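Example with several molecule types.
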Amino acid sequence: MKKFNKIMSVVMASAVTAALFAGCGNADEKTPAADSSSEANNAEQETEAADDTASASGVFKIGGIGPTTGSAAVYGIAVQNAAQLAVDEINAAGGINGVPIEFKFEDDECDAEKSVNAYNTLKDWGMQMLMGTVTSGCSVAVAEKTAEDNMFQLTPSGSSVDCVKYDNAFRVCFSDPNQGAASALYIGENAVASKIAVIYDSSDIYSSGIYEKFVTEAANQPFEIVSAEAFTADNKTDFSVQLQKAKDAGAELVFLPIYYTEASLILSQASTMGYAPIFFGCDGLDGILNVENFDTSLAEGVMLLTPFAADAEDELTQNFVTAYKEKFGDTPNQFAADAYDAIYAIKAAGEKAGITPDMDMSAMCEAMKGAMPEITLDGLTGIGMTWDASGEPNKAPKAVKITDGVYTAM
Amino acid sequence: MKKMKMTKTAKNNLITYIMVFLAYIAVQILLATGNISSLMKGLLVPLCIYVMLAVSLNLTVGILGELSLGHAGFMCVGAFSSAFFSKCMDGAMPDGVRFLLALLIGAAAAGFFGILIGIPVLRLKGDYLAIVTLAFGEIIKNLVNVLYIGKDKNGFHFSMKDSISLHLEEEGQVIVNGAQGITGTPHDATFTIGIILIFISLIIILNLINSRDGRAIMSIRDNRIAAESIGINITKYKLMAFSISASIAGAAGVLYAHNLSTLTALPKNFGYNMSIMILVFVVLGGIGNIRGSIIAAIILTLLPELLRGLSDYRMLIYAIVLIAMMLFNWSPKAVAWKERLKERYFPKRLRKEKEVK
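Resulting C-alpha cells for the full complex:
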C-alpha cells in the first residue's frame, strides 16, 4: 500500500505539473482539425512562427470561439471544421494579400463566462480578428469585450439582435427577428395556409426570438395564428399535447422555429396521431434528413427557409460539401456554411482594406469596419451577400421543400 | 510590557486574511507592471465570485452540517434581482451608489429566499434540506426562463407567456426577456470590489464561527440532542447560518451579473451542475475549513483554463486531476503517508506538538 501511495503521488504530481506546462507554452499548438492541413503549409507557418512576435511574423492570426464540448458541441465543431477548411483553402491559394492565415479555435462550453475566458486566451495568443462566437448568448458577452478592445468581430451564427450592437461586430447569419418576419412574409405572400399553429422552445433564445417576430409580423398578413404552444429544454421528448392542440384548432400549417432534433420527434409523433399539416421551419431544421433512425419519408413536404442546403446543385456548395466530407467524414450543416462564408468575408474585406499583419488590432479593426459594407460575397449561404455598417447581412433567404428525401428549391 | 497573546483560532484567521491580502497585492503589482496575461485579467473577477460562493457554502455544509444542493439558485436570485435593479436605474443615480444598492438588493433577495426555504425545512431532521434546495435551484432557473418584465411610461408590465403579451408602449423597454435573460447590465464589477466583498464575507463568517452563536451552530452539527437539551433554539440558529450563507451567495451573484453584459439562466451557470461544482470546492478544500475553500476554489477555477492547451482532452484531464486531488487530500492512507513524511522531515515540530497535547 505504501508503494501504491508513492506511485500515485508521483503520477498526480506529474499530472499537475504537466497541466501547468500545457497551460503555459501552448500558444502555437494547432487544433486537431488543423493537423490535417498540408505539410508544406505547416512548415511555412512554423518557420514564420519562429520569427518571434506575433505581428512581425507575417501571418494573420484569426481566432474562433464556440462550444466543442457539451450539449451544443455539434455547432461548435461544425464551425471549427469549416473555418479550418476555408483557412486551408485560402492559404493554399496564397492567403490574404499574399499573407497566410493562422487559425485557432477555443472551446467555450456554450457558457458566456467561459467564452470571455476563451476570448482572453486567444488575445494572449496574439489574435488580430475574431470569427465568433457560435452561440448568441456568448456572442453578446464577447461583443462587449471586443468593443472595449476595438477588435474586429464577425460571428458566423450569433443570431440574437444584441450580437452586433457595436459597430465592430458583424454577422453572417440572419438575425432571429429577420427570420421570423421573413417566414411570416413568405407564408402570407404565397398563401401557403390560412390557419397556423406554432410550436416553439421558450427556453431557447433562437426559437423564442423567431417566434416573437413571427407573431408581430403575422398581424399584417392574411393568415391567423390559431395556437401557439411552447416547450422547454427540460421537457422536449413528448409533443403530443402541443400537436393535439394544433390539430383541434384546425391548423393547416405548423410553424416550427426550432432545431431539427425536436422537429424530427414532432414529425414522427404527428404521423402517429394521423395529423398531416404542412410543416414549415427555419434554418434550424436543416439537418433533419441526417437524424439517426429517422424515417425521412415523414419529412416529405416539409418547407424551410434556409440560406444553405447541403444538397444544392451549385458548384460552390458541391465543392464545399465534398471537401468537408472527405476531411471530417460528416455532412456539413448550416453552421459550417456560415463559418466558411465568414472566413471568406474576412478575406474579401481584408483585401479591400489592404490590411497587413503588422497593423495593430485597433487600426485593423477600423480598416475592416470600413471595408465590410463595401464588399460583395458570393458564398454558400447566399449569392451577392452585402453587409450594412450596422453589421447585418443582406441576402435573400432560400425557401426549400423536401421532396423524395432531398431539398429542392421552390 | 504586557504581551498580547493570540489564540490559535485568531492566528489561523489572521493567516487567512493575510493570504487574501497578499494575493491582492501580488495581483496589483502584476497589473501595474503589465506582467499579467489577458486570460488571468479576465479571470480575476470570476475567481472572487467562486471564492465567495465556496466560503458561503462552507458555512452551511461545514459549520452547520447541512447539505445544500441549490447554492447556484441563491446566486441566480441575487444576480437577477440586482441586474433588474441596475438596468432600471442605470443613469438615474451615480454608478457607485447604484452598484452598492444593487449589491444590497441582491444579497437581501437571496437571504429572503434562504429564510423562506429555511423556515419549514430546517425544522426537520435528516437530509431534507438537500432535497428542497435541489428543487429550489431548478425552480428558480425555470421560473426566470419564463419571466418577462417590461417597462414603459405606464410602469412595469409582467408576463409569463412571451414579450408580446407585455403590451408595451412604443418606447417601452423589455428588461427581463424570458430565456434571453437580461442583456446590457452595466459592467461594474472590478477585482478590487471582489476582494473587498471576499473580505466582508470572511469577516462575517469567521467572526460568526468564533462567536457564541457560532458555537451554538456547531453544537447542533455535532450533537443535535445535546444541543437541544441545553436550551439552544435549533431552528433559529440553523436559519441564521443558512440565510447568511444564502445572502453571501446572492452577493456573489450580483458580482456575476455585473461582470458579464449578458445574464441568462442556463443549466451551465445556475443549474444543478454549478451547485455541485461549488460543493466540490468545499469538499476538496476541507469541510469546515474556510481557508481551504478559498484555495480549492481558486485552483479548480484556474485548472480548466490552464488546461486549454490540451484542447478536447482538458475536461477528461480535469476530472482525473480532481479525483487524484480528492484521494491525496482525504484517503486515510494518503493522510497516514503525509504524517510519516512529516515525521521524517520535520521531527522537531511534531514532537513539540505532541508535548502540547
